[in-house]
Amino acid sequence: MILFDYVFWGMAGTILVLGFAVGLQAINLVRLRDATRRDVQRLFEQMDLTLGELRDVSVSLAGGIAVIDTLRSREASVPSAPVPAAQSYDIALRLARSGAGREELMSTCGMSRHEAELAVRLHGPSRSSARRR
């Protein structure tokens, strides 16, 4: 009978400890659920703010694109002023001094082949280095 009492009380104590542990676990799960709800609510609020800011940026971008298109159409409709010949030759001489070739001078400055060859011969890097010596 004594052995029965020890086993009985041991099992009763174990049941009480397990019941206490299950109760604590239930309380922790309720707290975790509430914390998760708060976190999800904050997350949705942040997403709403971010979506609002994204809409504002999208509207601003659309306005910027419209302005750029307007400026492009104005630029296309206004004829560009021709570069004066003296300025074109100044640019060509600077390019020749920096080592530009005949083809580049012809395409960039609108020079004839003979003009470009002359500019390269007179102002090209090999001639200017020979003059310094």
Properties at a glance:
mainly alpha, 133 residues, single chain
Secondary-structure blueprint:
Layout: H1 2-77, H2 85-97, H3 102-109, H4 113-123, H5 125-132
Helix pairs in contact: 2-3, 2-4, 3-4, 4-5
Model description:
The termini are far apart. α2 (85-97) runs antiparallel to α3 and α3 packs across α4 (113-123). This protein is an all-alpha fold and 133 residues long. The radius of gyration is 43 Å and the shape is elongated. It has two domains: 1-80; 85-132. The chain contains five helices and no strands.
Using only CA atoms, what is the Rg?
43 Å
Q: Which percent bin holds the helix content?
A: over 70%
C-alpha termini separation: 124 Å
Uncertain regions spanning at least 5 consecutive residues: none
> Strand count, sense and closure of the main sheet?
none
What's this model, at a glance?
By secondary structure, the protein is an all-alpha fold. It is 87% helix and 0% strand. The longest helix is centred in the N-terminal third of the chain and has 76 residues.
